[in-house]
Amino acid sequence: MDGKSLDITENRLEKLREYFPDAFTEGKVDWDKLKAALGDDIEYKDERYLLSG
To answer: How many domains does the chain have?
Structure first.
């Protein structure tokens, strides 16, 4: 042992990056993308649609 403590959070983030690389934006977890990757039906708040006739 080298006397260093394990960074459990960083270890978990690395595993998450392995399985869901698209769920990260600028090195941080994008929770909406992660939910979508897991099959969660999400609603994007910033999306807008305009219907004109």
So the answer is: 1
